[in-house]
Amino acid sequence: MNTVHPLHRSPDLHRQRGAVLFVALVFLILITLLALTAAGTSILQEKMTGGMRNRQLGLMGAETALRGGEAFLLNLDFIGSNKLTQCPPSGATSTCAYVPQLDASQKVGLNPEVQAFRTSRTWIAAPGGAPSYLRPLTGLGGSLETASLHEEPVLMVEEIGSATGTGGFRQSEIIDAENRGAGSRALYRITARSQGGSGAVLRVAESVYVAAPLSAGFNPSDASSP
Questions:
Q1: E strands of the chain, at which residues?
Q2: Residues 6+ apart with CB under 8 A from 158
Q3: CA-CA distance, 131 to 68, in Å (whole number)?
Q4: Alpha-carbon distance 57 to 152, whole Å?
Q5: What is the DSSP letter of 221?
Q6: What whole-number distance in Å separates Cα of residue 152 and Cα of residue 62?
Q7: How far out from the chain centre does Cα 209 lie?
Q8: 120: left (phi over 0), alpha (psi -120 to 50) or beta
């Protein structure tokens, strides 16, 4: 009977020792790399989604404030205590509309405070005399919690000139034709600023609203008013 001594086994068996462990380690490293890549991609996508959400919230906040400014102009009394006035050059204490001012050389210039509100890349308060948006958009709860903004949106109204005639491509105001009096109209520029769900997003939007010259005391309910 022939027997093989343990020390005299085939050389091939010695060369195969540890190969399975090595292959397993290689596969473990590959799986780890794949898992880390997938986790990094998921985190990046989550950040991108959050950024898009913040931008959309900021845009919707600015657009909502614009509609609030238009509603403010629509609901004025035109005369009496709720009539819109023109803002003084400085120190406005009541709700008013800003108008272009003449500079030292008698050229029409824009109020620096107004321009700062329109163009600033940082969050600033509305200038004095600006109307407020009365619908709360911060601290929302329940199903509205995800739509809550970081700060309440702010807006400003400017009276930037007159709109003449209704022909061609000119706009007509919201007031009915029979209540336009002499037909005089003015252009009002509304600027709104809003943040998103965090202070990292800032959106600015503007619209131009055509209406009766509110600061002149025009009463649209009286067709004989000048």
A1: 85-86, 96-97, 101-102, 108-109, 154-163, 185-195, 202-211
A2: 97, 98, 99, 114, 188, 189, 190, 191
A3: 9
A4: 12
A5: T
A6: 10
A7: 19
A8: beta
Buried b (16+ CB within 10 A) or exposed e, 138-156: eeeeeeeeeeebbbbbbbb
Cα separation of 203 and 18, whole Å?
62
Residues 6+ apart with CB under 8 A from 187: 159, 160, 161, 162, 163, 208, 209, 210
Residue the block writes with tokens 């004025």: 76
Q: What residues does 190 pair with on adjacent strands?
A: 157, 207
Q: Where are the domains of the chain?
A: 31-216
State the Cα–Cα distance between residues 150 and 52, nearest whole angstrom: 15
- ∠ CA 181-207-136, nearest 5°, is 105
Angle at 95 between CA 131 and CA 68, to 5 degrees: 25
Q: Look up tokens 């919690």; give the residue.
A: 145
pLDDT in tens, the chain (226 residues): 555 555 555 555 555 566 778 788 888 999 988 888 888 888 887 778 778 888 899 999 999 999 999 988 888 765 556 677 888 877 777 888 888 776 666 566 677 888 899 999 999 988 888 898 888 888 888 888 888 898 999 999 988 877 665 544 444 444 444 444 444 677 889 999 999 988 888 999 999 988 777 665 444 444 333 3
pTM of the predicted protein model: 0.68
The identity of residue 182, as a single letter, is A
